[in-house]
Write a structure and sequence with these properties.
Radius of gyration: 20 Å
Number of helices: 7
Distance between the termini: 41 Å
Shape: globular
Strand order of the largest sheet: 5-6-7-3-8-9
CATH architecture of the domain at 217-278: 2-Layer Sandwich
Number of strands: 13
Order of helices and strands: EEEHEEHHHEHEEEEHEEHE
Oligomer: single chain
Helix content: 25-40%
Length: 284
């Protein structure tokens, strides 16, 4: 069972007498949840993410339930003596993958993010956008239990931005947790389970604790064997599931998660038949 990350009374300041950047932070990040963190520049968003990722230690308070974590920083250091593939393979090995598995995962993520042609390029020679793709790939290749993204979409082209959104949906559908900061308020706007604002060194929840995120949704009607049970990954993805007959279900899912849902259904064993996909206002 994946651990739940908890921050209890956490505070952080830099230096013995430095001002408190954060104080009294209480936060639970449960498996399978997507959490957005907002706030103006300089409020401590990045400090909070570094605490969640285990990069920084709290000055006071406790962090418990540490899951396997991967982190995409706001600024990725590209001037390292590796090619993109060498760097990713090395990090995959650090995360516990065999070198062969790490190299395979590295190549797959570079291709998926549109950077496959730069696998043999030295990191120092990559553009800012390509460096950011490597930063994203290193966080995803070992399938972390907690993914922490600090402005990870910045510098990516449109296709890579979309691919990262799909990767976020895949992580949460698989039971992982994702915490992210992004300057674009439209980023995954319909998907978060909770939204927090960092203000005056404190953390304020902006969504109802038990609320379901509003936003565009898709209705999917599926059919499977009469005794089949919906896969667990599907149940974690959907907002609502209704059994309409033996092996027949109507599912409502956030639009940003619909492609992950369909992929899960079609690759299940036995596979499910997708009868229809439409927006709720459609009358089919």
């Amino acid at each position: 069972m994946r651990p739940e990350l908890r921050l209890n009374g956490v505070g952080r300041r830099y230096g013995v007498r430095g001002p408190w950047v954060l104080r009294g932070i209480e936060l639970d990040v449960a498996p399978g949840t997507l959490v957005r963190v907002e706030g103006t520049n300089g409020t401590g968003k990045s400090t909070l993410l570094r605490l969640l990722a285990g990069i920084d230690a709290p000055t006071e308070g406790r962090v418990t339930g540490r899951p396997r974590t991967a982190y995409v920083p706001e600024r990725f250091p590209p001037a390292l003596p590796f090619t993109a593939l060498q760097y990713l393979t090395h990090l995959g090995s650090v995360h516990g993958l065999s070198r062969r598995s790490a190299a395979r995962a590295a190549g797959e993520w570079l291709e998926r993010l549109g950077a496959g042609e730069y696998a043999g390029t030295q990191l120092a020679r990559l553009s800012k956008g390509s460096s950011q793709k490597v930063a994203v790939a290193q966080a995803l290749l070992a399938e972390p239990e907690l993914l922490v993204l600090d402005e990870a979409w910045t510098g990516l082209d449109a296709e890579a931005r979309g691919e990262l959104e799909r990767a976020v949906a895949e992580r949460t559908a698989a039971g992982g947790a994702v915490v992210f900061v992004d300057h674009d308020p439209r980023r995954l706007a319909d998907a978060p389970d909770a939204v927090y604002a960092v203000r005056d060194g404190a953390l304020h929840r902006r969504t109802a604790p038990a609320g379901v995120p509003d936003g565009p949704r898709v209705v999917v009607r599926v059919r499977g064997p009469s005794d089949a049970v919906l896969p667990a990954d599907v149940r974690r993805t959907v907002v609502r599931a209704e059994e309409t007959g033996p092996g027949r279900h109507t599912l409502a899912v956030p639009a940003s998660h619909s492609d992950v849902l369909l992929r899960t259904l079609l690759t299940a064993r036995p596979p499910w038949h997708v009868v229809s996909v439409h927006a709720p206002e459609d009358r089919r």
